């Protein structure tokens, strides 16, 4: 009986990772009303960055954050400045097209550079698990995913509530004209916001790399997870994204236990459909 | 040298000319009024001064510096603040966050605590409501917040676009009292209004706008009622 807690607990832990996968997408939508289709590729790009540093320097994947996060922040800043900022006022389509194009370019660049082979960010954490009351096992790496995920969301929350950058980001999405009158340069704030969003994507990418295997085309799969998370939780809502991650994680693993592991993705999307039907704006989303 | 100098300004919305050859200046230590009926071009003029709109010809100088090529975020740093028409407060930010974002410019950040105290002294109501979301304030309180937020940028010139629009007479009196105190603190004030009587009473110098052109200017004490009516309504 108690062993049925296993998928529940593992689902919650995995949900912490899912929340970080979704938060960058949610942020960009909340701030600019735009959808970045290259989100998944930026995640996986960070997984490869981490792999390179790990192989070059022989350091732990979590330590590669020191190099990966600044690099990916600059990349995000430049992408927003030189690509996305040009089309912001032109509605959603140009942004979708550009980000889709970027995702294809990144995917193929990774294919060229890193070959289509399966990779993983190998650590001793991946093979350890904790025995819970002799009833079931929780993989340590899932625990790491959850803790890091929780920290990322908590830190993001603090940035949004306590810093000038956070106020500026929220002000710009609330009333752009007034924000400009306050001294905010929207394009600069958007570039910084994109930098932060891709940092969250990069963190989730490294966690994914430590937890599962990844390929140059893995981004698409995680973009879909990100969509699932933000649709369930509510676009642009930080607590909603956390909740969305947990719900998707739990429904996949619990559903997988009930209807079979091959169908765990399906069970996640059944929950997604139910949420969309009952509360189209997401559980914590505003109308 | 005047604090604000606007010369031969022409502004268009597409093919429609909203301002024609506007020339005006604001001296230090003055309250200047810009009057005009609905659609006269007042907000257009203010949006152009604050950098939200670009003039097709003409120039704007602030403290001797040419500001018409600058964006609004650079203009506010120089000490020119606009309290926009319709208040435009951040409804999803708290009152306190609304005020703090007013001190976004690096120069203003350093003295933000002091400024915050000044604003709360001017509008104690905002201190009581500082944890509430902007959207939960009444119209008058939102206007106070919009003014307080502009003051947080430590302006030397502060422009109010229709400060009294849609507010009760008691609230309007209260806000005008605040405007006078702002002037006493050494800031230069520009009032833009449809409400002719009150703003002519407050102003040291006035411009009356009609269909994008200046029809009358001078010390309001020298205006005759006939002149004002003619300039305002085009009768
Ligand atoms: N965004 C806009 N696009 C086109 N025309 C505009 C726009 N804003 C204002 N106008 C027009 O410009 C004229 C002046 O408007 P405005 O400056 O808002 O007047 P006021 O503030 O004096 O009421 C009006 O005829 C108005 O219809
Ligand atoms: Mg107006």
Percent range for helical residues of chain B?
A: 25-40%
Number of strands of chain B: 10
Q: Let me know the average pLDDT of chain A.
A: 91
Low-confidence sequence ranges of chain B: none
| Main sheet: strands, sense, barrel of chain B | 6 strands, mixed
CATH class of the domain at 1-79 and 190-235 in chain B: Alpha Beta
CATH 4th-level superfamily of the domain at 1-79 and 190-235 in chain B: P-loop containing nucleotide triphosphate hydrolases
Task: Write a structural description.
- The complex is a heterodimer of chains A (287) and B (235).
- Chain A is an all-alpha fold and 287 residues long.
- Chain A has one domain.
- Chain A is 72% helix and 3% strand.
- Chain A contains 11 helices and 2 strands; from the N terminus they run ααααββααααααα.
- Chain A has a two-stranded antiparallel ribbon with strand order 1-2.
- In chain A, α1 packs parallel to α5, α2 packs antiparallel against α3 and α2 packs across α8.
- The mean pLDDT of chain A is 91.
- Chain B has 235 residues and is an alpha/beta fold.
- Chain B has a domain of 125 residues: P-loop containing nucleotide triphosphate hydrolases (Rossmann fold, 3-Layer(aba) Sandwich).
- In chain B, 37% of the residues lie in helices and 26% in strands.
- In chain B, α8 links the parallel β7 and β8.
- In chain B, α3 runs parallel beside α7.
- The longest helix of chain B is centred in the C-terminal third of the chain and has 16 residues.
- The model of chain B has no long low-confidence stretch (mean pLDDT 94).
- Chains A and B meet through α6 and α7 of A and α2 and α3 of B.
- Bound molecules: adenosine-5'-diphosphate (ADP) and magnesium ion (MG).
- The site of adenosine-5'-diphosphate has 11 residues of chain B, from β2 and α1.
């Amino acid at each position: 009986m108690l062993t049925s807690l296993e998928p529940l607990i593992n689902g919650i832990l995995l949900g912490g990772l899912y929340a970080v996968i979704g938060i960058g997408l949610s942020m960009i939508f909340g701030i600019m009303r735009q959808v970045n289709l290259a989100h998944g590729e930026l995640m996986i790009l960070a997984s490869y960055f981490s792999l390179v540093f790990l192989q070059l320097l022989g350091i732990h994947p979590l330590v590669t954050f020191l190099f990966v996060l600044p690099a990916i922040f600059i990349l995000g800043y430049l992408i927003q400045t030189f690509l996305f900022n040009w089309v912001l006022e032109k509605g959603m389509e140009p942004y979708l097209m550009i980000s889709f194009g970027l995702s294809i370019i990144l995917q193929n660049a990774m294919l060229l550079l890193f070959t289509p082979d399966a990779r993983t960010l190998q650590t001793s954490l991946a093979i350890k698990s904790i025995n819970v009351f002799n009833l079931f096992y929780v993989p340590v790496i899932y625990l790491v995913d959850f803790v890091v995920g929780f920290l990322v969301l908590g830190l993001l929350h603090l940035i949004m509530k306590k810093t000038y950058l956070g106020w500026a980001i929220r002000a710009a999405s609330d009333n752009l004209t007034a924000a400009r009158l306050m001294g905010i340069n929207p394009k600069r704030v958007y570039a910084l916001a994109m930098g932060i969003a891709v940092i969250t994507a990069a963190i989730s990418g490294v966690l994914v790399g430590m937890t599962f295997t990844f390929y140059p085309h893995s981004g698409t799969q995680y973009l879909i997870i990100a969509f699932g998370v933000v649709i369930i939780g509510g676009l642009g809502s930080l607590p909603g994204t956390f909740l969305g991650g947990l719900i998707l994680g739990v429904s996949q693993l619990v559903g997988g236990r009930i209807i079979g592991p091959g169908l765990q993705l399906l069970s996640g999307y059944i929950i997604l459909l139910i949420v969309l039907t009952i509360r189209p704006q997401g559980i914590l989303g505003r109308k | 040298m005047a604090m604000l100098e606007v010369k031969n300004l022409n502004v268009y919305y597409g093919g429609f000319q909203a301002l024609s050859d506007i020339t005006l200046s604001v001296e230090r230590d003055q309250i200047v009024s810009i009057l005009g009926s609905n659609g006269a071009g007042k907000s257009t003029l203010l949006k152009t001064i604050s950098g939200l709109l670009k003039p097709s010809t003409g120039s704007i100088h602030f403290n001797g510096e040419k500001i018409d090529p600058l964006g609004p975020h650079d203009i506010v740093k120089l000490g020119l603040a606009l309290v926009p028409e319709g208040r435009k407060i951040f409804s999803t930010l708290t009152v306190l966050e609304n005020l703090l974002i007013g001190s976004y410019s690096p120069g203003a950040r350093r003295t933000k605590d002091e400024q915050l105290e000044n604003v709360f002294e001017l509008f104690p109501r905002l201190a009581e409501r500082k944890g509430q979301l902007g959207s939960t304030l009444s119209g008058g309180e939102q206007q106070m917040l919009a003014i307080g937020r502009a003051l947080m940028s430590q302006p030397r010139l502060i422009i109010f676009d229709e400060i009294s629009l849609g507010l009760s007479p008691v609230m309007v009196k209260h806000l005008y009292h605040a405007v006078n105190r702002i002037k006493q603190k050494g800031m230069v004030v520009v009032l833009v209004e449809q409400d002719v009587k009150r703003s002519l009473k407050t102003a040291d110098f006035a411009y009356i706008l009609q269909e994008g052109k200046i029809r009358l200017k001078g010390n309001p004490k020298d205006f005759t009622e006939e002149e004002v009516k003619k300039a305002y309504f085009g009768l």
